[in-house]
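User: For my dataset I need records formatted as: sequence, then structure tokens, nothing else. Please produce one.
Assistant:
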Amino acid sequence: MSVLPDSFAAELAMAHASVPDALPGAAFCALADGLLALLFPQRAERPLPNADVVAAELYHFRSELAVLLAKVPNLPAPAAALADEFTAQLPALRAALLRDASAILASDPAAQGLAEIIGSYPGFYATALYRIAHALHQRGLPRLPRLLSEHAHQRTGVDIHPGAHIGPAFCIDHGTGLVIGETAVIGANVQIYQGVTLGAMSVTKGLQGQKRHPTIEDHVVIYAGATILGGSTVVGAHSVIGGNVWLTESVPSHSRVYHRAHINISRSVDPAAELVFSI
């Protein structure tokens, strides 16, 4: 005998019947990972032997993308046309990601080379999936861009909305806990550390469609734990935002913004005595 009322089963049945068509989310994320391995052999199990094999893999990618897109309801254009358009962008996508990897290499003294960055750095992976998701988001594809961004979020701890606009040579250092909102605009050669939030002042639903997240101009460095909020907040070019800064107003170019903590450290004359720290 069931311990649940029949009405609950009927309620669940209605929910299942009314849900939007399921998307091929897992297959689509796997295809994106496969694309990165195709574009960057550093992420592949083994390099492809020659140009003919590479061309065949590119053709297979385009065909598989068209098949998956055909399963998505309410596409803004035919699946085959969207697949062709996206595939035609692959040279530019690869060039952009190489610039991102080079920016990481130039700024991270621990990096041993582009192969290490491309093959293992979570910041590069999160940026790569963002750029793929952003390209799809710009073409009005429903839901799939967010699936990709969440796939990257789960793997790296970096949460970038596919609607954000991020310029070239973008450098995420470490990245865990980084959040970049939908309407954020980031210029060229920007470096962001872990735990940074580029967020909104308010999450009211009525603000949908408005610019809610900050603008970061070129050559800005934002250190760990900084929070920058508001659609009208602009961080001027060549500025440095220090760790744990809470910023809700614009700063001009070449600014240095720091959170100043009051720290006192004292020690008794006897080295064996306890240390006293006041923070």
